[in-house]
Amino acid sequence: MGRVACQTIPFGKGVCGTAAAKAETQIIPNVEEWPGHIACDGQTKSEIVVPIVLRGGQNEKVVGVIDLDCEDLEGFGDVDREWLEKLAELLARSCDW
User: Fold this and answer.
1) Which residue range(s) make up the domain with 54?
2) Global pTM value
């Protein structure tokens, strides 16, 4: 829900690309203080991006991200991380990638 997001973000660029490249959740309390933030919606103040990672032995592959923005500073915390990471694991196991 909200404004249309950027369609393609390269690995390593912006919060989404960083989460994908590192295969690690990124919580950004203030997007204006984060170097390289890609502003798709000027109302966004904070962001959480959780990678969806296919895991199999030594091979890991990021197939997508869950990207949530908030119009408040510090809009996301550990509870959000915990449950969104569980959702990402469920999506990785359940979808036909």
Assistant:
1) 14-94
2) 0.90
